[in-house]
Amino acid sequence: MLWNASALKRYAITASDGQIGTVSDFLFDDLSWRVRWLVVDTGNWLPGRKVLLPPSVLGQLDAKEHEFSVTLTDQQIKDSPAIDTDRPVSRQMETRVYDYYGWSPYWRTGFSIEGCDHMPGAGMGTMGTAAIVTSRSPGSTRRAKAIADARHCDGDPHLRSIAAVARCHIHASDGEIGHVEDFLVEDADWSIHFLVVDTSNWWFGVKVLIAPRLVRKIDWADRLVNLGVDRRKVKGSPLYDASKTVDWAYENHYHDYYGDIGRSIGSGQLHRGTR
Fold it and tell me: What domains can be seen in the chain, in order of their start residue?
């Protein structure tokens, strides 16, 4: 199911023996467009401290109670490495957390995301989610190598704060269309399926969805997301009604509309400006 990232903020995080805090932000990998960490504000329990938790430790999402359960104790979380979330989260910081819990880091697993459905420049699968496979096809191996090489070159894990990306301006190939207002995230694998864009300065009262595969370039310094499609194409895309759930039928319709456009944008590689 797709969730608005903004709706999941402030959800409580409940350990096996008590509540530990609330979700204050999400960190996503801007190469794979997957949420890698939840930033948890521990409030009065550990004043002034935030902790990182990967989605893999989350148990049942309780929409009625607005909380996540986690398969950890509060003591485990209390003794976890201190993280300064006001600074960019480095690979070293991530490694300390993984080593403390004895988990296998996501960048060292032997699994590949077949089809890389949610990467910019790649098409969506018919179900809207990627399939995890244990063998690598030549194509997936090349994509995995490209991601590894990109990370190796600058030592940057490419983690971005969803809160920080909100309000970034979105430019089509022929002009601005609006700004990022929210993200739609799949709770099955924590992939970002869509950016929700407020077009009030261009198309009053209308919000549109932009899939990551349509993104051609992101200039983080200028907070600008550039698309590989023009305004006319965006304006003709399937209408988005924020009051309705985005289901598989809508996603299929959306990706059929854009066809192979995403595959021709950057050939799966996203160009970035400086921070």
Answer: 2-106 (3.90.50.10)
